[in-house]
Structure formats: C-alpha cells, structure tokens
Design goal:
single chain, 274 residues, mainly alpha, f41 fragment of flagellin, N-terminal domain, 5% strand
Length: 274
C-alpha cells in the first residue's frame, strides 16, 4: 500500500467532513452577502414607514372632510327651515294683500308676522356644529369664516349672519302701514329678497358639500390603492426572499463540493483495491 495514497484518502475524508462547517463560516463571514440582506430589509422597513405616514395623512384628511360635510349638511338644513319661515310670512302678507274685508285693520297681523321672525332668529342661533354657530355671528368673532383645511385641499366660506335678514324684515314691518297697498307691497318685496338671500347662502353650502364629498371619495380611493400596494409588498417579503436566495446558493455549493470529494474518495478506493 502506498503511504501517499493512504494520506490522500485521510485528507479527503477530513475535507468532506468539514464541508458543512466551512460553508456556514462562508455564509456568516461574507460581509457583502450580509450587507445585501440588510439593505433589502432596510428597504422593506422604509416602505412600511412611508406607508404608515401616508396612511395617517389620508386618515386625517378624510376625518376633516367628514367634519366639513357635517357642517355643510347642518347649515343647509337650518337654512331650509329659515326659508320656510320667510315663505310663511310672504304667504301671510299675500293673503293680507288679497283681503278686501271692510274695516279690517291689517296692521293687527304684525304680531303674527313677528312670531315667525322669532322662529327664524332662534333657528339661526341654535344651528351649531361642535358648539360653533354656523349661520349667526358672535360679537367677539375675529374671523367670521368656516375653514376646511387638509393636505389635499383647503376651503374657506364666509360665515353668514342670517339674523340680519330677520332684523331688516322686522324693521320694515314695524315701519310699514299694511293698510296702504304700496307700503304692504314694499314689505312683501323685502321678504322676497330675504328668501333669495337664504337660497344663495344655501347654494354656497351645497357647493362646499359637493366639493368635500368629491375630495373624500378621492381620499378613500387613494387609501384603497395604498392598502392594496401594501398587501403586495407584504406578499413579496423582500427580506425572506433574499435570505432564501442566499441559503439556496450555499446549499448548492455544498452539494457540488460533496460530489467532488466523493469522486476523489472513490478513485482512491479503486486504486487501493487494484
């Protein structure tokens, strides 16, 4: 038996036994591979951070849009009631105008008209959203505006002061002689102007509501798109795929090394038996 052959077999067997431990050392000690995996994980973390930030921004905007829609809805409902009160006054004045009863003092109806105006004022001061008056101004208010401010859009609407309309009509009624057809017609015209003013203010709130609803829909759609993209990122799982790729490469290399060492041992064994 050749001493060199025996020595070669021992060396080859020793190398074969060390394949697993050597491959693990290579995997752990290769700074490039470690850096690559860490970079993938950092990239995933960055994506999650950006997602959370964008999600929070969209949620805050949607909440603001919802509050704005609530403000517009409450204001429009109140303006509808105020318009009804003025319409009742207008109808009553028209009835008075058409009443030709002899010796009927038409000024006696002023008290009933003022009762409708009182309801009008009460509606104005009671219309609030989170304790803020929407269609009446307080004396101490420095900024009589309704503002809806988000990252995507900003809306500002001058806050109406509807009690002014009631005061103007009340003064006209008080100074008018309802028995005089011309004076009576002047009161009817003043009430008609008040109705038109209410409709205009209501239209402004209606436009605000429509714009806010459209922006809210866009914000919801953007959240859905963002959520779907986040689900895709989770399914990709960059960090796990990078780890699996590295592990597969190491295992493949181990297989090649093992096969090579086995062939060497087989050749040495044949030589010993021959």
């Amino acid at each position: 038996m050749d001493v060199n052959d025996v020595s070669n077999i021992s060396n080859n067997l020793s190398s074969l036994n060390d394949i697993s431990s050597n491959s693990q050392l290579v995997s752990k000690s290769n700074p490039q591979e470690i850096s690559s995996v860490d970079n993938k994980k950092d990239s995933l973390r960055l994506t999650i951070t950006e997602y959370n930030k964008k999600r929070d921004e969209l949620s805050a905007s949607l909440q603001t849009f919802t509050q704005g829609i609530g403000i517009a809805t409450v204001a429009q409902n109140a303006l509808t009631k105020q318009t009804e009160y003025l319409s009742n006054i207008e109808k009553r004045l028209t009835d008075i105008q058409n009443n030709n009863t002899v010796n009927d003092d038409k000024n006696s109806y002023k008290n009933d008209l003022n009762k409708e105006l009182l309801k009008f004022r009460d509606e104005a001061y009671q219309t609030k959203y989170k304790n803020e008056k929407l269609i009446a101004l307080d004396e101490y208010e420095d900024r009589p505006t309704i503002e809806i401010d988000t990252k995507e859009a900003k809306y500002s609407l001058n806050k109406p002061n509807t009690p002014v309309v009631a005061n103007q009509i009340a003064q006209t009624i008080s100074s008018a002689n309802l028995n005089d057809p011309q004076s009576l017609q002047g009161v009817i015209d003043t009430v008609g102007s008040g109705i038109d003013a209410m409709k205009q203010v209501k239209e402004e709130f209606s436009t605000l509501e429509s714009n806010l609803k459209q922006n809210a829909r866009d914000s919801i759609q953007e959240q859905i798109t963002l959520s779907n993209q986040n689900l895709k990122n989770k399914e990709l799982n960059f960090g796990k795929e990078s780890d699996d790729f590295t592990k597969n490469n190491v295992m493949s290399n181990m297989g090649y090394l093992a096969a090579s060492q086995a062939n060497i041992v087989q050749e040495q064994s044949v030589r010993l038996l021959s």
